[in-house]
Amino acid sequence: MTVVIEAQGLERSFGDLKAVAGIDLAVEEGEVFGFLGPNGAGKSTAVRMFTTLLRPTGGMARVAGFDVVSQAAEVRKNIGVALQDAAIDPLMTGNELVRLQAVLHGIARPEAKKRGGELLERVGLTAAADRRVGTYSGGMRRRLDLALSLIHEPHVLFLDEPTTGLDPTSRLALWEEVRRLNQDQGTTVFLTTQYLEEADELAGRIAIIDEGRLVREGTPAELKASVGAPTLRIDIDPEHVDQAQSVLSRFGIDRPARNGRVAVGLDGGVAKVAEVVQSLESAGVEVLHLELDAPSLDDVFAEATGRRLEGATQHHE
User: 113, 93, 112: which is closest to 102 by C-alpha?
Assistant: First the structure.
């Protein structure tokens, strides 16, 4: 397979802060590659280097076969970019913005009109095409931004946290469009997200980034299998945490949990739950609630970093 996004020792510093601290990765043509991590992990900084908006301070990166520094113009011809803080003129209509984007890419007017109409239809904005963008909802703006990034039919699409702040319906609609782009047109998609479900749903492979470094990489199934045992989470009186952890240490490896809860990677799985409860009760620890979950990407992140990921569902905290 052809590698279309590549980084070797890629770094970016802002003064004393190293936002991206030497990452290596390779994304193959036709993949949906998920870049998963919390706010401030370095995801957006990495995307800005791949899309030529920031110069690396160390290492190298190539996109579509071109160096992001010495061949930046060629990179830009081959990529589409939808950033989370994209500036869209609220006084222009959807149609006007799509046609302006086409002009900027040197697309002839008849072709621009045809492509623009098709794209607006695909992202569900035909009825709103002649309305000013200032009247659009957040979900509509995200879908318009996606259409703008696709007008020149890029080989590689960068989506930087595309569904942050969207309602569930808008999020699902955008997911469906990303799947269609990838499956029907073979577009390579580089997706940054802090949402575990989003990475699990869309990405064929995932790299987890934390504090500027890659801490895990693989398919969702591989990453979850690497955690091993399912996680048993038990709600108890916070005063009994030490006793509970002492008991649980006999059943597996401690896993991060919020206050008032203890968690363990339970060797033996469901067959051991009753024994755990009996052991806790014998130690004077009352079980208020318990749940046993198959390994998740949140568990992968927790194992790699020692804490839970922002955006993880409440019951996994």
Answer: 112
Between CA 64 and CA 77 the distance in angstroms is 10
- Residue 45, phi then psi, degrees to nearest 5: -65, -40
Q: What is the dihedral angle through the alpha carbons of 106, 147, 6, 25, rounded to the nearest 10 degrees?
A: 170
Q: What is the 3-state secondary structure (H, E, C) of 96-139?
A: HHHHHHHHHCCCCHHHHHHHHHHHHHHCCCHHHCCCEHHHCCHH
Query: Is the alpha carbon torsion for 197, 199, 205, 211 positive or negative?
Result: negative
CA distance 121 to 95: 11
For the stretch 200-258, pLDDT in tens is 999 999 999 999 999 999 999 899 888 888 899 999 999 999 999 999 999 998 888 88
Nearest to 10, CA basis, from 300, 216, 209? 209
Question: Cα(218)–Cα(312) distance, rounded to whole angstroms?
Answer: 19
> DSSP assignment of 240-278, as one string?
GHHHHHHHHTTTEEEE---TTEEEEEETTGGGGHHHHHH
Confidence (pTM): 0.79
